[in-house]
């Protein structure tokens, strides 16, 4: 089943994208920051969410990991 049709998989993909974009921005800020608009601007926005809401993203990642480990 595709991640688009399974809500739990869709949330996992979104959380992984947020964490990956925030990590890549910490390593290579020029790559993420030069694309603030357009289609590649989504990665900049995900990186900003990961940086500004990092405690909430971390809690969401822990909850998602626990749900995948114990309830799937």
List the helices and strands and how they pair.
Layout: H1 7-27, H2 29-33, H3 41-52, H4 54-70
Helix pairs in contact: 1-3, 1-4
Main structural class? mainly alpha
Q: What is the average of the pLDDT values? A: 88
Strand content: under 5%
Biggest pleated-sheet summary: none
How far apart the termini lie comes to 14 Å
Oligomer: single chain
Helix content: over 70%
- The rough form would be described as globular
Radius of gyration: 13 Å
Q: State the order of secondary-structure elements, H for helix, E for strand.
A: HHHH
| Number of DSSP E strands | 0
Low-confidence stretches: none
The helix tally amounts to 4
Description:
It is found in: Golgi apparatus membrane. Belongs to the KISH family. Its main location: Golgi. Keywords: Golgi apparatus, Membrane, Signal, Transmembrane, Transmembrane helix. This protein has 72 residues and is an all-alpha fold. The chain has a domain at 27-71. Helix content is 76%, strand content 0%. The chain contains four helices and no strands. The longest helix has 21 residues, at 7-27. It is globular and about 40 Å long. It starts with 6 loop residues before the first helix and ends with a helix.
Keywords, please?
72 residues; 76% helix; 4 helices; globular; mainly alpha
Question: What's a concise summary of this model?
Answer:
This protein has a domain at 27-71.
């Amino acid at each position: 089943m595709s991640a688009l049709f399974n809500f739990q998989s869709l949330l996992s993909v979104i959380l992984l994208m947020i964490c990956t974009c925030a990590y890549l921005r910490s390593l290579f800020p020029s790559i993420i920051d030069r694309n603030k608009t357009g289609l590649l601007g989504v990665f900049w926005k995900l990186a900003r969410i990961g940086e500004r809401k990092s405690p909430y993203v971390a809690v969401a990642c822990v909850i998602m990991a626990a749900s995948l480990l114990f309830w799937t």
